[in-house]
Predict the 3D structure of the following.
Amino acid sequence: MAILDERKEIYEEIKKEILNCQACELWQYRKNAVPGEGNLFATLMFVGEAPGEQEDLQGRPFVGQAGKLLDSLIGSLGLSRKEVFITNVVKCRPPGNRDPLPAEILACNPFLVGQIGLICPKIICTLGRHALHTLVDPTRTISQVHGSRIAKDGIVFFPTFHPAAALYHDSMHQLLVEDFQILRRLLKEI
């Protein structure tokens, strides 16, 4: 029980830092920072790009339409949202839902690294190119590596498409579903 309490305490410190962060200009536009949520002992972590409109309003990751799709995909793994940890590369919504800028990603990186170090997931599923580029390899594209297993720094990374992209492209939706079938098998191996 002491380990859980200690981990919760450390996470609350990280969360407080995120909620009060002014390291880049995004804090000026946010309604709420979105630290992330889930199981602090999760085997599987999901890392997306940045909060969207609903996430900014609620202060929670993946709660809009893309979040509903992600919840369904997590269910296809035989898991619930409470059993995984979900966060983003950038913790505040970029204005107009634009891509996060390199300086914004850099400003948030210590938070993401801290979350990964605290939770120690065995698998990190990167959702979209920004998470792939930030955590795995800035030279690769999602089209090249989606659905594959990439070992780095003692963690297995599993890149796939961002659920928001799949909402607008049927072909990507099918690939995302297929990638999650591969991820389900991978979880059984680890």
